[in-house]
Amino acid sequence: MSKNGLVRASGCVVYRITDDGLEVLVAHRPRYDDWDFPKGKLEDGETDLECALRETEEETGFTGEVGPELPSDRYPVNKGDKLVRWWLLHQTGGRFKANDEVDEVRWLSPETAADVLSYDHAKGLLAHLPR
């Protein structure tokens, strides 16, 4: 957290192309009982992109090729505001294993993901997936 009360976090909108078409990864966080894209807070000395990639791999086990930065999100939290920067990530490797932060992931069509995601901003990020 910075001196001005801004919590900084980053994450990725992970997608893959299968025989059935484009699929996007959504993660269930039992702590909040929500469905969102993987994200987390920056560690000291870490760039926003480094954080996004680290958090995605820690929470989901997946790695990939970084695409463009997506629109950021800012919302109030207990001690100020949280700013989340997002990147598109084309999944190229990894495997999911349930952990303390994420107990389940689903690969969904963008249309189904829009019905499952818990937050409007996350739903809006679906518009930036490749078509």
Question: Any overview of this molecule?
Answer:
- The protein has 131 residues and is α+β, with helices and mostly antiparallel strands.
- It has a single domain (6-128), classed as Nucleoside Triphosphate Pyrophosphohydrolase (Alpha-Beta Complex), CATH 3.90.79.10.
- Helices cover 20% and strands 49% of the residues.
- The protein is built from three helices and seven strands; from the N terminus they run E-E-E-E-H-E-E-E-H-H.
- It has helices at 48-60, 110-116, 120-125; strands spanning 6-18, 21-29, 34-36, 39-41, 62-77, 80-94, 104-108.
- Strands 1, 2, 3, 4, 5, 6 and 7 form a seven-stranded mixed sheet that branches.
- Strand 5 and strand 6 form a beta hairpin.
- The chain is globular and about 45 Å long.
- The termini are far apart.
- The model has no long low-confidence stretch (mean pLDDT 96).
Integer-rounded radius of gyration? 14 Å
User: Architecture, CATH level 2?
Assistant: Alpha-Beta Complex
Overall tally of domains: 1
The CATH homologous superfamily is called Nucleoside Triphosphate Pyrophosphohydrolase
Percent helix: 10-25%
Overall outline: globular
Number of helices: 3
Structural class call reads alpha+beta
Low-confidence region ranges: none
Q: Sketch the major β-sheet.
A: 7 strands, mixed
* Mean pLDDT level: 96
Question: Percent of residues in beta strands?
Answer: over 45%
**Span of the ends, CA to CA:** 36 Å
SSE succession: EEEEHEEEHH
CATH hierarchy class name = Alpha Beta
CATH fold-level name: Nucleoside Triphosphate Pyrophosphohydrolase
Number of beta strands: 7
